[in-house]
Amino acid sequence: MFDRIAKVYDLLNTVMTAGLHHRWRERAADMALLRPGSRVLDVATGTGDLAIELARRVAPGGEVVGSDFSEAMLARARTKPKPAGAELRFEWGDALELPYADATFDAATVGFGARNFSDLARGLAEMVRVVRPGGRVVVLEFTSPTRAPLSIFYSLWFDRVVPLLGRLAGDPDAYSYLPNSVKRFPAPAGLAAELERAGLREIGYLLTAGGIVVIHFGTVPMEGV
């Protein structure tokens, strides 16, 4: 499915979010607490927008790896301009079996991809495993607002407009999947609990975009803590 929609993915993201998805990724990158020289993994990187934002934060001398299981998405990511001063590469990888050693990265992020993990607990545990003690894990996702009138608008937009955009783009199944995947995903407090079970500490989350988007963050504990 992700291979099929790779060519229209960036355009539809911009249409569906009025271009705000770039700002949301910037805020997620803020939560990773990066500095020049940091090494970061972006899981389920898609067409690479979050990885590119992260690369801006780790220059000079840093490294960002964008990992995804969709070759078509990775191919699109590799065509985008790369920020100067940092190494940025895109590699195939399964989020449930990341091909990296323990404590390899200073931070790991996932932007709008955690709800696609077939096993959420395992995917989060893998992100925690590859981050060094004291490093950050950040999860950027959609969530369902609970208060009117935004909840009403959100329901109409995701249940009707987004599938319509998918039909116009020639892939109605993929863009019916999107709202359904958001509905199945844990609410913010539930995801915070999942992050704790995965081994993180100092967990918090930030609701933004009126409660449509949530950014979770947590710290990999030092040994013995």
General description of the model:
With 225 residues, the chain is α/β, with parallel strands linked by helices. It is built from eight helices and seven strands. The mean pLDDT is 89. It has a single domain (2-142, 184-219), classed as Rossmann fold (3-Layer(aba) Sandwich).
Helicity, as a percent range: 40-55%
Distance between the termini: 42 Å
The CATH class assignment is Alpha Beta
Helix/strand-derived category reads: alpha/beta
Q: Strand order within the widest sheet?
A: 3-2-1-4-5-7-6
The description of the largest β-sheet is:
7 strands, mixed
Radius of gyration computed on alpha carbons: 17 Å
Helix and strand succession? Answer: HHEHEHEEHEHHHEE
| Whole-number total of structural domains | 1
CATH-defined topology = Rossmann fold
Write a compact overview of the structure shown.
With 225 residues, this protein is an alpha/beta fold. The chain has helices spanning 2-17, 21-31, 49-58, 71-78, 120-129, 150-169, 172-184, 188-197; strands spanning 39-43, 63-68, 87-92, 105-111, 131-142, 201-208, 213-219.
